[in-house]
Amino acid sequence: MYNILIINAGSSSLKYQLFEIESSEIIAKGLAERIGIEGSMLTHSAKDKEKLVITEPMPSHLEAMKLVLKALTDPEYGVIKDMKEINAVGHRVLHAADKFTQSVIINDDVIAAIRDCIKFGPLHNPANLMGIEACRANMPDTPMVAVFDTAFHQTMPRKAYLYGLSYEAYTKYGIRRYGFHGTSHKYLSSRFPKLIGRDKKDLKFVTCHLGNGSSMCAIDGGKCVDTSMGLTPLAGVPMGTRCGDIDPAIVPYLMKEMNLTPDQMSNYMNKQCGMLGLSGVSSDFRDLWAAAENNNERAKIALEVFCYNVKKYIGAYAAAMGGLDGIVFSGGIGENDARVRKLCTEGLEFLGAKLDPERNKGRDKEMRISADDSRVEIWCVATNEEFEIAQETYELCCK
Ligand code: AMP
């Protein structure tokens, strides 16, 4: 029996899941929140067990991790007897720039490389490192793997990853497109071909990971050839609160007009724009639809802008790949919002992509939503990043 602990550490939180390889199931999961601030709390739930809430001070991730292990091995609420039953730990890490093309076993060099990428992921990478250090201290003999959000996109050709800046901006400062949500796109890149019974080597398709953060990925022959997020996860389609692609000249212009520092401008573009900024209602699509049904014009505008941009990317990627065999919708919005899927594919019949309105209303986790006479297969596929992380950690540490 192999158990893989998956860790996603934020600056004041630590999310975990214990994944059982044989059953492909999450047997326990939880969240430590308010780490380092007053009111620290751990919420833990396990298969067939009652929920456990621990309110104990957690000055740092170290104490949080201690409590996670305590909960997992608790005779009443836990699922394992000893932490030795955790065979390996897989850590979600945001940014590896171009240092890693795949997941790696964590050692001092890997830690140094993650630290080196803090400049590109100032919010996430330091938190990811705290999670790694906390595990190392609490379970020094357990092998650990870093699974990077950027790794899957490292196969992009340079014409896709270079910006039209000076070449020195790339060579000197590392400014290029890196892309994110790699674990999700990678999972979809192998799941979709299996679902339609084709070899991924023969397929060109677009994966649309649409959630609070959204990104698009062009996959040709099983490899990423382009993606919508860039140096950071701010680029691409407009998102819940992120602006997505904008004219770069807007940045200095608005900084002057609104009297903002670089950090304030960054905060504005990350937290106050996108669906929230456009609608003035919410970043959540359920709220947007509810407002749109009440004739809120700005909620309608936000939804229109979002779907138009997703569609534009699908068209652009079909052109970039010179063909299109599939469109895959995933993420909280892609998996649940039939109206968004309809708007994002409306008018793509010229590419051979035709939605079936009835199938599109389905609720299955994996379902074909294209019409029988659609040349392009359109699917809705629930992403499974935990599966991908656990699988990669298992492959590297347990085989
Ligand atoms: P994610 O970041 O992938 O967890 O996606 C979160 C987003 O999915 C939320 O902000 C909602 O906008 C959206 N979402 C989740 N469930 C639904 C639903 N049933 N209908 C429409 N949107 C949904």
Query: What is the SS-derived class?
Result: alpha/beta
Uncertain segments: none
Number of helices: 15
Helix content: 25-40%
> How many separate domains?
2
**Percent of sequence in beta strands:** 15-25%
Biggest beta sheet attributes: 8 strands, mixed
Name of the top-level CATH class of the largest domain: Alpha Beta
CATH architecture of the largest domain: 2-Layer Sandwich
Shape: globular
| Order of secondary-structure elements | EEEEEHEEHHEHHHEEEHHHHHEHHHEEH
The CATH homology group name of the largest domain: ATPase, nucleotide binding domain
Number of strands: 14
Compounds present? adenosine monophosphate
- Write down the CATH topology of the largest domain: Nucleotidyltransferase, domain 5
Radius of gyration: 22 Å
Mean pLDDT figure:
97
End-to-end C-alpha gap: 13 Å
Strand order of the largest sheet: 5-4-3-2-1-6-8-7
Overview of the molecule:
- With 399 residues, the chain is α/β, with parallel strands linked by helices.
- The chain folds into 2 domains: 3-148, ATPase, nucleotide binding domain (Nucleotidyltransferase, domain 5); 197-381, ATPase, nucleotide binding domain (Nucleotidyltransferase, domain 5, 2-Layer Sandwich), CATH 3.30.420.40.
- It is built from 15 helices and 14 strands.
- The strands form 2 sheets. Strands 5-4-3-2-1-6-8-7 form an 8-stranded mixed beta sheet, with helices on both faces.
- A hairpin with a 2-residue loop joins strand 10 (214-220) and strand 11 (223-227).
- Helix 6 crosses helix 15 (385-397).
- The radius of gyration is 22 Å and the shape is globular.
- The model has no long low-confidence stretch (mean pLDDT 97).
- Bound molecules: adenosine monophosphate (AMP).
